[in-house]
User: Fold these one by one.
Assistant:
Number 1:
Amino acid sequence: MTDFTRRALVQGGTALGAASALTGPALLDWAKAWAQNAAWKPEKGATLSMLRWKYFVQSEDEAFVKLIDAFTKATGVKVNIARESYEDVQPKASVAANTGTGPDIFWGLYSLPHLFPQKCVDMTDVADYLGKKYGGWVDSAVKYGKSGNKWIAVPICYSGALINYRLEASKKAGFSKFPDKTDAMLEYAKAMKAQGTPGGMALGHASGDGNTWVHWALWAHGGQTVDAKDKVIINSPETVKALEFAKTLNSHSIAGTASWNDGSNNKAFLAKEVHWTNNGISIYVAAQNSAKDVAADMDHAYFPIGPVGKVTELHLMYPALAMTYTKYPQACKALIAFMLEADNFNPWIQSAKGYLTHCLNAYDKNPVWTADPKNTPYRDVAKRSLTAGGLGSVGEKAATAIADFIVVDMFANYATGREDAKGAIAIAERQLKRIYR
Amino acid sequence: MQGSNLMTDVALKSRLDKRPIQEPTSWDRLKVNKNWLGLWFMLPAGAILMLFLAYPLGLGVWLSFTDAKIGRAGEFVGLENYEWLGGDSTFLLSVFNTLLYTTVASVIKFAVGLYLALLLNERLPFKAILRAVVLIPFIVPTVLSAIAFWWIYDAQFSIISWSLKQMGLIETNIDFLGDVWNARWSTIFANIWRGVPFVAITLLAGLQTVSPSLYEAATIDGATPWQRFRFITYPLLTPIIAVVMTFSVLFTFTDFQLIWVMTRGGPVNATHLMATLSYQRAIIGGSLGEGAAISTAMIPFLLAAIMVSWFGLQRRKWQQGGDND
């Protein structure tokens, strides 16, 4: 029965009116049954407020609101949802943790709970329950979710950043698909530029696109900002190799990447100016609506493997945490568990159209990943992602280093020729040493 | 008639009897002191100033001596933040950028603003409409105009690059925001575009206070237009210029939105101003103490700007009939 409704929702697609008519009552029945059997009974008279990052796709938010409505109807717990740009969730959560008032649940970016681990409600029971029921958590989610032996947050989803590239231009340049090794990628970029179909990746202060690719490039060549003990080790021959790779790659790219922000490559790709770049699935989703020829002639690929010989991608994770000051911890746990139950999570992640990837292995089977084979690479981003800070801890320090664009600026400094490798690394090293002191 | 008079006399007398004349105490004096009363009337205003101006400023300065992070009070670390910034090439670059941005933009804003003001002060057809039109850049919300400029300067879709390409003047797009100096000039241009109306309209208001009889007298004496400007308009306008330019310099020095929307301080920090770097470090990066130190480091520059305009431009005794010192 549930399977049938889920399928129906898939076929309904964005036609939300039809979908809700089909799933509305069924979802509610299921939610009521769930609430009766759940291990977490919301406190009497509980109301919750939640601050979440602002959605990228409207349909995702609509599905999310529907899910929350079902929770409210089943448990009687009213939930207020506030939305903030994803960069603003962290400061607000930090202030709330410090002052002891604010939303009960925060749903933010990767290392958020590690900024104030003592202020997070212990979620071990929720995480264990979900992990057992849905095929276990992926490695990176465990690292993000746990502090010591305790789960301080529940990893909800990832948003993946992978290679987007045009098919026909690549074929013309002699590549039937995007290269899977960094050396070949340089050849590819060179050939693409030579035939007038260049690509490029952001070297400006692009929080998402800039950070994901430079960290990949650094790690792919064996460079690391810090070691496992958080000692700064950026000044290494491997880092130099990574910088040289990026400089060569950038010289084979379209001009202007140093000014790109997160949106620049999206619009340039959709306008057929850029033929390969790194991005979430948003270009493809937008192309399906507004540039069908681009959508038909593009595909996604994993980031190539570098000299280290293993996957070194970085993707954004979105954990949800409850604050210890909440008056209704059981309601918080119930809500977070409820969100990740198959009957809620499957249609929700489907409505996100590939923007968001699960951290629980069982959801690999969700039809969103196979209905369109071009979505498939994004299925694996949670499994492939390393954590912020590389070898080091995932806490505040890693978050600060990323927010301050230290690695991005190091690459941009060298790739644009403003600094030599030594100078670029020295600037980054000095800043990192202060953050990791 | 007589009786009632008498009665008041008696009443007055008895009251005076009860309270013999004595030396007023200092409290009695204070009670009737106008300054004392004035102090009380000023208190609410003073409290508001303390609460909303002095306290945040003091707190910012205090934070700059701590290692506070967002959401966590820091410990006192003395001048550590400043020592660190002294050797931080990004910070030093941002100081250079800020000074360049402020100097170039302010000078051009003043020149263009003054020119526009003089022009609008002349007899022109459609004067009222023209004056309103000049204000448009000032009326548009900064974020909106920043986004418009961001598109104008876009690496791939710039209307300027496109037009020049259509005309066959250039082969490839101009890299407005990706090249270090291009980015600096582009952001400065956007700031000028936005700041000129403020200067122009305020100076225009100043121009209209200059009495026409002075010009008439000068014309009769055979003064050239340049002499009329140099010896009548300019001296009488200096107080207004001082105020306008102080504000203009302060606004430019603390500019944030234009840069943040267009470049976020890029490319490779070439357009980071002190204000944007402070925001990036303090709010996005979470290092409140360091960000506060960057903000605090702006204060001496701002004070200097105020001093220069106040003492350099305003203290002209001859304006009040004395000699110029």
Number 2:
Amino acid sequence: MTMRNISPGVWFILPTMLLLAALIVYPMLSTAELSVTDANGAFAGMRNFNVAISAPSTRLILFNTAYYVIGSVVFQLLLGILAGILLNQHFAGRALVRSLMLIPWVVPGIVAAMTWAWMFHTDYGIINYIMTQVGVISEPIGWLTNPNTVMPALIAVNAWKMFPFVAVMVLAGLQSVPEELYEAVRVDGANFWHEIWHIMLPQLRPVLVSITLLLTIWALDGITIIYSITGGGPANRSMIFPIQIYVQAFEYFEFNRAAALSVLYFLFLSVIIVLYMRVFAAQEKD
Amino acid sequence: MRDRRRTLLISLPVAILVIVAVFPFLWMAVSAFKPLAQLYTIPPQWLPDPPTLENFKNVVFQSNIPRYFINSLIISIGSTFLALVFAIFAAYGFARFDFRGRSAALAFVLIGQLLPTATVIVPLYIVLNYLGLINTYLGLILVYLILTLPLSVWMLTGYFRGIPKELEDAAIIDGASQLGVLFRISLPLVTPGIIAVTLYSFVATWNEFVFALSFATEKEMKTLPIGLAEFSTEFDTDWGAVMAASFVMTLPIALIFLVMQRMFVGGLMSGATKG
């Protein structure tokens, strides 16, 4: 094959592909290598994996990760779908409300984390104040220091941060629903609830499937909010898998163990990424 | 009658939605302007009385935040620009040519965009360390390409596809080279795309936390998100300063958002008039 036979397109994409290979493929191969060697570079078989998996905190961390991801995605979807349907209705000031709703999504993650940490403050936080005033709780709760409330609190922050994204996608999806569908069920005397259940949600299904996969990937990547608010504490009760990778590598300097965790993390993620890409490809075809 | 009932039915959830979305942001702003004594009161004081710039003075003159701000600016602009240069060529290649392995390459770009940062921090640290790039602007600019490059390629490919091919064919018949076509004809036509990609990349790198936490550990190199998180790691958190710094960090993003929104609306309008 001579140079002339190569499509010019290849030359256009080549620099980018090489750069991405250096930044993504090489590190991943190197992670795989690190995970089966010891600190001196000698082959260690599955030892790093065994040590990482048999650590006493592993079960708690896996549980926390599942808890955080499922909790986040469920509430992001629920809030986002409700907001999307609401913003698709006609009311005065709709354009303004649509812009204001985007604020959580636009605010930097770390700023959202710090602001909520302040709002959750045990003594001076506005959340404890409002809840005690209303009578939901009788005395202030240490939201971020109590092992039973720390995860729900963090999930609330993540749900707040990402629900506008769901709402925007739902809104876009609803705008492409033909008006005739609504008219057809209205003739049969359907109320608003029926419209949501029998028209909007079925029509939104493809959008919701791909959003759910995206939200899952993003929640699994959720270091910023948790690490900056609790650092994984109290006593590992908010420690999730990706933070554990960071802690092993940069606080304990156990690079090989961290690499073993990265490999496991990546294997799990790749299942979701492959699912997402299949959904994505199927939707591109339509 | 039915309309009025509907308005009432809808205004309550709308009000709740607006409060949920806006309140934390407002509370941050309000707290940033409160003197210390009014931050730590039970019950909390709703509005600062009188508003003070004391927290901002602390942030600007007594913390490292100004330095972090400049670091963030340099790194974000550097990575955004570098990604743009590479992405213009790659996106044009993906949009205009059909070749073997094209869809595989595109899929790889998409994977790069989806890949969580925690999967690659360990080896990236080792590579950067080997190259002497830990705690350097160049090091962070390079690793931030993982965020900006796939995103830029992906978005720009869409914009290039939107240009009618006939425009380019005409120029080629007139004897222009492929590169000449890209720079003289196609690139000016995707200016809105270039702006959108630039802003998206800037926001993504400006907000990035994990890479900065891992690869910029020295005081001189830290970025704003890390500086912000640092305030609260000590036992005695100065919440006034944290809120003021948060406010400062959000400002550029808010400005970008305002510009984007106008562009977004403008794009819709031009589409409507053409249609």
